[in-house]
Amino acid sequence: MKKKTLVFLCVLSGLLLAADSIRLKAPENGSVAQNMTERQRHYVGLSEEESRKILESKEARTYFRSQQNASFPAGVLLEWAFTGPREAIQYHLYLSSNKNFKGTKPILVPDSTFRAFNLELGKKYYWKVEVRYKDGKSLFSEVFNFTVDETAPRVIYAPNVKNIRDLGGRKGIAGRIIKQGLIYRSAGLNFNSKDGKVPGQPQFNDEGKDLLLNTLKIRSDLDLRSERETAKMPNSPLGKDVNFIHIPSTAYAGVFRDSGRQNYAQLFRVFTNPDNYPIDFHCIAGADRTGSLAFMLEALLGVEREELRRDYTFTSFSSIRGDKLYEPLEKGLQALGTPEEPLQYKAERYFLQCGISAMEILQFQERMLGPGLPVSPVLEEGKQQVLFMKNFQAKPVTFTPKPVYTYSTKMPLCGKSVSYSWPIWRQNYVALSGEKDGEVRLILAHSQDPAFMTLIPKSGLDPKASFVLLDAKRKVAYMTPKGAQSWTAEQLAKIRFSLQTIAPAWLRILPGTSIPDGYTSADFPKTQDGAPNYIKTAVTKNAPVINGKLDDEIWKAAEPLHPVRVDNGAVHKDCTFRVAINDAYDTLYIAARMRTNDIQVKIKERDGKVYEDDALEIFLSSNSHRTYYQFVVNADNVVFDSKKNAVDWNTDQFSSATARVSDGWTLEVAIPLKQFNFTNALELNLCTDCPSTKVRANLGAPVDNYHERSSYRPLLYK
Fold it and tell me: For 369, left (φ over 0), alpha (ψ -120 to 50), or beta?
């Protein structure tokens, strides 16, 4: 009887167990699952025009920061339902990109939902759920699959660390998808030091550290912050096992200066070492220095312009970053090529100018996109450049390049004699030089504006010695101005080479008079002369009264200046400026006449957002100085001042006054100059803000980013 009872109970137990079930609910089998939040997906789906409107609106912060941790992804929510008369004790979830779940470790889940983060874009995943009973028995669900939406960016989750994204997932060169899981960008992994002596505490918690180390498998922490921000900490916040690389970095227009190129050469070589991957690079917000480096790397990988812009502004979900800051990056690259060329070619040209070899660039591209990439014309030329200079050692040579200034003058300023020279030289323009068997080879380049140079013969060289001057790239032998094929050292020292940012010149200088085979003769190209586009500055013995009335004699004598509209390059005749300096050359005066039927002024406090009102913006610096000063005065004479974007800088050596007139408003300004300690001639840009008409214009050039130094113009009064 007992035996029959036992059998009955076993059968009943089996029936009850068989009645239990696990039903997978979401994502539906075979569906596409979203990683980003709804707001993030909405933003990346906007056109450029639509996203610009949002970024420029007053509601921008609400749009991007509508929830806590808005830079975190939504992740993929997995849901299931368990039914049956017996209560489960545990759920175990199996999630894998392998449909056989080989090597997959189960995840213990407390209830019937699980949010999966950090899955790869475009990848198919398989999942199932196991229910384990108190008696050790278990029940498995069927297997479902879903594919993660392939829309970039791949937003990463690690608790407390904001703004983490994978550089992979976007289309690059030849339509290939950039590999995921190799390069990440993020906000700082620890807080900035408060005193420059003690490093800040980690931003991540234990879960975040585990995700960074074991899910993302970060091997190298590339920190772009300054030494004060890091307090010279020797190790990564993630621990000593992570390779900590500290390279204080520049951003935006600074990337394209000589110092910026040196900085980016150092940064790029972090990415040429395969042992460094996966790499996370960051500053503190993951926005400015981080955004600039991400832009350059993604451009080098062939990411299209709109995707580059979208990735930059996506940072706004953590810290608002709009197009005004992005534009110097794109403008800097656009200057390195023709409008028809892709940004990839211009980024390649940039890194070649940094001293990175064509092979290093190609190896990086293939690491991120796969082998067998088509080699661009820029890199092909870079490879040929190496062959051209093979066996020609870099050393002092018979002819040394020297800058040529087509316009140079000296002027008084604050009791000193200062100089102005044009064009401005921003870096060493000799890319490579070498000499072998009497032949000199030079690769000459200029990183920013077109410039001029000449060749100075070595001391002791016979000035009448004969040389042949060859353009090795074009296979041209240059003739002298008198039509001869051989040049003397004296003649070479008098010519001017025009250096462009796009195409370095490859020169061969051979002793003798014979032109090698394969070269054709051509006249030497002429170079341009003339003064720069300068601001004529009136000199006055009698200082104007700063009352906003513009009735002083100096304003009748000063030349009227009109800005150029940013949107279409047309002269904006509704704004008239005049500039003067006193005869002690230590105080600058500016007068402005703004014609508008609808003056809008809202800001009343010093250093508020005065530039959002009807206002004049003044940008002042000195030739070749990196520091610049910004002053903004609205129609109610409220002032904003800053030093190189540092809003906490203020001066009491600034006088201004405004007045309302029948068809607009007027402004007078006096700026004492000794406070700046300038050592070269003054450079200035005057810019308008008019919210009613939305017309933006400036004196220098039709550039929307008024901070752009290339749009400043020199003040010449002698």
Answer: alpha
Spell out the residues 6+ positions from residue 285 whose beta carbon is closer than 8 angstroms to its own: 163, 187, 188, 315, 318, 319
Rounded Cα distance between 355 and 138, Å, is 62
Q: What secondary structure does DSSP assign to 638-702, as a single string?
A: -EEEEETTBTT---S--EEEEEEETTEEEEEEEEESGGG---S-EEEEEEEE-TTTT--EESS-S
CA dihedral over 208, 146, 35, 188, signed as positive or negative: positive
CA 237 to chain centre: 26
Cis peptide before 525 (omega within 30 of 0): no
Q: Is 537 exposed, middle or buried (0-12, 13-18, 19+ CB in 10 A)?
A: buried
Provide the CA 106 distance to its chain's centre, in angstroms.
42
The three-state (H, E, C) secondary structure of 342-383, written as one string: CHHHHHHHHHHHCCCCHHHHHHHHHHHHCCCCCCCHHHHHHH
**Is 5 within 8 Å of 74 (Cβ atoms)?**
no
Q: Report the alpha-carbon distance of residue 631 to residue 633 in Å, rounded.
A: 7
Alpha-carbon distance 638 to 574, whole Å?
A: 22
Q: Which residues, at least 6 apart from 244, have a Cβ–Cβ distance to it below 8 Å?
A: 220, 221, 223, 233, 234, 235, 236
CA quadruple 139, 141, 142, 147: dihedral, nearest 10: -140
> Is the Cα dihedral 423, 428, 430, 436 positive or negative?
positive
Confidence of residue 16 (pLDDT cuts 50, 70, 90): very low
Best CA proximity match to 682, nearest among 691, 692, 693, 671: 671
Q: Cα 469–471–474 angle (5° rounding)?
A: 150
Q: List the Cα angle 697/598/564 in 5-degree steps.
A: 10
Task: Give the 3-state secondary structure of residue 553.
Answer: helix
Q: Are the C-beta atoms of residues 619 and 707 closer than 8 Å to each other? A: yes
Q: Which of 216-230, 372-386, 494-508 has the lowest mean pLDDT?
A: 494-508
Pairing outcome for strands 476-479 and 466-471: antiparallel
What is the average pLDDT value for the chain, to the nearest integer?
90
Are 423 and 449 within 8 A, CB to CB? yes
CA distances from 529 to 407, 423, 496, 498 (A): 8, 10, 10, 11
- ∠ CA 52-57-59, nearest 5°, is 125
C-alpha distances out from residue 102 to 15, 47, 145, 297, Å: 31, 43, 15, 35
Cα dist from 386 to 35, 359, 361, 396, 480, whole Å: 45, 10, 14, 19, 29
Task: Count the neighbouring beta carbons within 10 Å of the beta carbon of residue 349.
Answer: 25
First to last CA, the chain: 122
Spatial CA neighbour of 236 closest among 227, 226, 246, 228: 246
Residue 29 CA to residue 707 CA, distance in Å, equals: 53
| Burial group, residue 459, by CB count within 10 angstroms (0-12, 13-18, 19+) | exposed
Q: Which residue in 137, 134, 166 sits closest to 153, CA to CA?
A: 166
- 159: which DSSP letter? T
Give the C-alpha separation, 694 to 252, whole Å: 25
Whole-model pTM: value is 0.78
| Residue 15 CB partners (closer than 8 Å, separation 6+) | none
Q: Could you report the per-residue pLDDT of 427-465, keeping only the tens digit for each?
A: 666 777 888 988 999 888 776 666 788 888 988 899 999
Alpha-carbon distance values, 676 to 210, 414, 520, 657, 690 (Å): 50, 10, 54, 22, 29
Interval 506-544: pLDDT, tens? 999 999 999 999 999 999 887 777 777 889 999 999 999
